[in-house]
Structures are given as structure tokens and as C-alpha cells.
Amino acid sequence: MEMVVTAIAGDLVNRFISFLIKKHESHANLEKKVERLQQLLLRIHMVVEEAEGRYITNSRMLLELKRLSEAMYQGYHVLDTIKYKALCSTRDEKKVSSSSNALSLTNSIKCFHTNSTNCFHTTRSTTTIFHDLDSVLENLETMVSNMTEFVVLVGGCERMPRSPYDTYLYIDNFMFGRQVEKQQIMNVLLQENIPPFAPTVLPIISTNRVGKKTLVAHVCNNDRVRSHFSLILRLKGESIHKTEHGAFVPTGRTLVVLEFTSDIDDVSWQKFYSTTRRMGKGSKIIIISRIESVSRLGTIRPMHLNSLSLEEYSYLFKVLAFGSTNPDDHPRLSLVASELAVLMGGSLVVANVCADIFRKNQNLQFWQHILNKYRNFLANNFSVFCEHPKLLIERDRPVDISKLVSSTSAPLRLMPPHCEDDDSTRDLPKVRYGDLIAGSVVPPREKFELVGWESRIPPYKKYVNVAMFSGEVNVSEHVVSPCKKRIRFS
What we know:
The protein contains 16 helices and ten strands. It has helices at 10-21, 27-52, 59-88, 107-114, 126-145, 148-155, 179-190, 212-220, 223-228, 266-276, 310-322, 331-343, 348-360, 364-385, 389-394, 433-438; strands spanning 200-205, 231-236, 254-260, 284-289, 303-304, 399-400, 412-414, 430-432, 448-454, 462-469.
């Protein structure tokens, strides 16, 4: 995960400085600001990385760690934006990225929330970038100056077991971010219940596909958690009626992970919860759902998981896309990755699909080709549905992916994910999403199964959709109800 903070390529910095000097300040002063930003990021990154490798039980320390992490990613984002502006101001960059399609890293993300397409022809002003640099510098300076107590307290926290592998080189096999949320959940699980024999209920609520199941699975695989509970049960919400007849009543300390895809009535929940009171002392219940009303079942404050911020998401995508390659050595590729990170709107599945394609072929023209495809795909769905594809998928609506396929102009509809044990799709032809985007396969003319991405970490979730060619896409098409996926835990 770690991006080694190295000096920005000299020629890019000089071009950017020359571009700003007429309106703002001297070359030497601006150069010092950029250098100072890199120094501050290095110091904060060291502290954040050390803190993420410790067991932190103090809630205020966890909040401070979250603030430091957010500030760090914002700093990296400003550095990327400076390089972006420097490249776009050079004549040869016009061959790589048309100025009419250049994206504003700030305005574009706002565009996705307002469902507007006007931002496609917007560029950030130099004044805004310069203000961001000053603002981030001031914020980081303040944090570093007040970081001494936090560093001392972190030094007194117990270290987590170290992985035998470099987690930053093999990031595909590890959970990115969510370190604060992970420790908050662990603190709840390892504390005593009040009253002792009434299991604590922690609801974790979020929209689809932001990583709540992965986060919980990561917590459940922690050595401390596994040794604390004699049994960890994973149940679907529809299964809790079995407990009314005594189908299970574990006697030891038990952790129950419940996933609700629909709401539950209060009577059924009370019957289930009264049964769980007979479990061992110190038992806990985690509820996972995207339904806000389910949070009422909690005995403590629910945890709401949001999508990664643009800064975090962009950082993650670059790490995945470049692998062990340093992005600072390939500034034009980094520019393409920055634009695509904005276009993807925070989708973790699409980020992994595109990053896998990019890692296999780190060629500028190829990356630009994929970027242009995604621009056309996004514009097409905005034109037809007036909404970002990520939002359509979250609401289980079909998405038109024909612009991602070079070999067709007919509407190619990507349907909402289906159940992995759905027998009706077992005999369908299978195509990998990445191969389709890269143009290495031709999609079948019949209905086929599109394999998006399979997680390499628990819960090893596999993202599978059915795709088919069709006539005109009907905007008013009914919403397809979400399916219940079979999740495999290790």
C-alpha cells in the first residue's frame, strides 16, 4: 500500500512553477512548498503505518489516527493534482489527453452526486490548485506539530503480528484502509457485555459493495478475536427463525454474524435475541445490512461505512494499477490513472478490474485507450439513465456496457448480480470482465455470464453478472430485486 514519497520529476515541477510564477509567487518559494509537502507526508505516513500495526483501544486515539490518514491522502492528492496540471500545460500532453475532455478532480466527483454531466468539460483553475497546496500544507504542519503525544501513546500499544510478506507489494491479498473501523469493531468484541448475559448487538450499515462483509471477515480472522470466542457463526437473516425452536443454542462464548437483505419485524427479532441470551457469557452479535432501519436492533451505536474518499480511492487505484512500479517514474500513466479514478466514482469492483488490466500492460496508449472507453461508457449511461453506473448498480438496475466493448455498437446490458448458486446460469458461456474491456475477447451473441472480480481475501466474494445484447434500453425498466449471494468464509 505504501507509495514511497520521492521528489516529483524535476521537469514537471519546473513547468508547473513557470506556469504559476506570473500570477502567484517566486520560483524558490513555490519549490520550497512542494518540497515541504513531501517531507510532511513522509513523517505522517511513518506514524500512520506504525499506528495501523498496533492494537489501539483508546477511542480518541482512533479518531486521531483517522484524521491523520485523511490528511495524508489529501496531501498525496494535491501532489498528484500538481503533476496533473503540469502535464496538461505542456504541448506534448495534448496528444495524450484532450483538453476538452480533461476532468476536474474536484468538480467531477461532485458531478456524480448531482447526476450532472456538465462537469465533463471543466478544468481546475490554477488559483484553486495553489490554494489547495497552501491549505494542505497548513493542515499538515498543524498535525505534525501536535503529533508528539500521539506518537508516545502509540509506542505503548501492543504490536500486531507481522505478516511474513510485504503487504504493500501484495496489496491484492490484504484489506486497504478501514484500519480505524477494524479496531473499533475489535474493541467492541473484546469488551465485556453490560449486562453480562445480554449479547451486545453492533449493526454495521452501508450501501452495497463498500466492503462491510470484507471488513467483518477480516476482524473475524484476527488471532485475538478467534481466540476470544469459542465459536463464530455466520447466518442469513432468514435463518434466525430456526432458533425459535432451539435449533442452535451454543453454550460457549459465541460471535454471531447476521446478514440482513430485508427488514425484520420486532417480534421475530425479540424471539431470536431472547434465545441468544442463553449463549455463553460475553457473546456478541454483528448485524450486516444496507437497510438503515435495521440499525434499531443494535444495543450500541451503529457503525456506518461510507465509500472511500476520492483521495483514498485514487491512492488505492494507483497502488493496484502500478503494482511494484513507482508511479513517479511514469507521470503520464499516473495522469491517466488519476482521471480514471474520478470516472469510476468509487467502485471497488471496477477499480480492481481496471487495475488488473493496467498492471499487465503498462503502455501509455493502451491506458489512454481504456480511459477513452470508460469516458464513452460513462457519458452513454448518463445520457440514457441520467445517473452514474455505480449508482445504478447499487440500486440493482441494468447498465449499458456496449461502449466498453470494441467489437459491438449494439446495446449490451449488464444485469444486476445474480446468486452464485443459481442453476439457471450454470451452463452460460463465461467471459472475464477485464478481458472484455481490454478487447482480448469477443462477447457471445447470446446471454453470457460476466465474471467481474474475485476477492483474494475473506470472504472471497465473487462478483458475477449476466450480460446480454438487447434492443433499446428502457429507462423506466423495473428495479431488479437484489439477490442473496452465498458467501464463503475461510
